[in-house]
Amino acid sequence: MYEENVRLGCTVYKLDRLIFANGERYPVLMGNDGMPHFLATLWVTTKLRSSLSVNTISNRLGALKWFLQWEENKHRDLFSEFQKGKFLSDTDIDNIREHLSHDISHFKGLAKSKKTRDKVIDLFNTPRLISVTPTVGRNNIYNRVTAIASYLDFIARVAVQNCNSTKLLTEINSMNKRILAVRPKGKGKNVLDKLDGKDLPDGLIEEFMAVAQFDHPKNPFKHASTKKRNHLMFLLLKELGIRRGELLSLSIESNFLMLHGPQKFIWVKRHHDDIYDPRKNQPVAKTKERMLRIRDETAALIDDYIINIRAKTPNANKHPYLFVTHRKGKTQGQPISTSTFDSIIVPTMKSVDERFKSIHPHYFRHNWNQWFSEIIDKNNDLSKDPNSNRNFISSSEEAKSRMYQMGHTSESSAKPYVERHIRNKTNKLVLEEQEELQRLIIESQKNRGYE
């Protein structure tokens, strides 16, 4: 049976983050005795900390925490075994791979919608039910196995570091290769692929935004300050196509925000390890820093929120982050956390209409890209008219503009969005042609007196 906090001996470990005096977020497997897992901490400090982001390290430790459950279940202590020159067999590796493929949330009992699937088999002509444990996708398995291969390779080398044996190092290299070899082959579906299978109905985002308006009668939030803040958050997601982490890390510092004058803009900045950010799980920009133009109306809404709502909220002046908690309590005035946005703000909006349940914050990013593709098409159609004063925008220019707006580091990152738009256009064209053909057939039948 899985326990959310891994128990090793008498110590229970949980994934936590420390905040150092310089603002650095340091992921750690912390024991209930107040001591971090020694080997995991050594691994993070010497191998991961200098090259990986905090979120990536946390994901690696999450995989490790689940792997430690395998050690507990099997009553194994791999570090001690490695010290004795005993390394993993192929059977061990297969068992570990199977364990890492399991859906952890199923064992936590949190995934109510992912109940154990039952399959009917015929044993001696008697139908019986067998339980099948849910598994995660190929990408998750790939990442988990990669993380554990790195960890085991590291602790194995630590275990034999005083032996000075070429044979042992050769065996460690072999073990690492055999672990990596059991990773799934091929690439699983990415986020865009998954969303392609669930295209939103036309106009649903607009309906969602209408309800999010602070004065809409169906707006589910109680207080005017919360209504205005949430509407502004969703508006920026829709108009700028920024990520959720970028939204929650927007700053009111004068260099990062221009709400007056002819060119109004907002800066998407990287605030990694900010000492003024009290959030352990700090929302950060995954993409490049960039200046994004905003509409006059949007700038006015931001200005109103800062002056008339945020400035009057206790403790909000202790940090520069734009969106803060307004509800009275110990977190009042603190920056909105990712968990608050994901588990309270978004679900509350979804509860208004059954159709809203299909809307995820990342949809706004895809929605922006679809809108951008459509205005490029419209511009290029108008450019064919010599009196329109429109210039044709090449695919290369479009890719560069999209790359900047999205904060991508290369034009190839925009390729999935372009392909998605082309696919949608093609599907629409094919459907229109089929409908036109059907119309002609019906007219032909009428003319011949078949109807």
UniProtKB/TrEMBL annotation:
It comes from the Bacteria. This is Site-specific integrase. The keyword DNA-binding applies. It comes from Aeromonas veronii. The lineage of its organism: Bacteria, Pseudomonadati, Pseudomonadota, Gammaproteobacteria, Aeromonadales. The keyword Magnesium does not apply. Keywords: DNA integration, DNA recombination, DNA-binding. GO terms for biological process: DNA integration; DNA recombination. Belongs to the 'phage' integrase family. One of its GO terms (molecular function) is DNA binding. InterPro entries: DNA_brk_join_enz, Integrase-like_cat_sf, Integrase_catalytic, Tyrosine_recombinase_XerCD. SUPFAM superfamilies: DNA breaking-rejoining enzymes. CDD domains: DNA_BRE_C (cd00397).
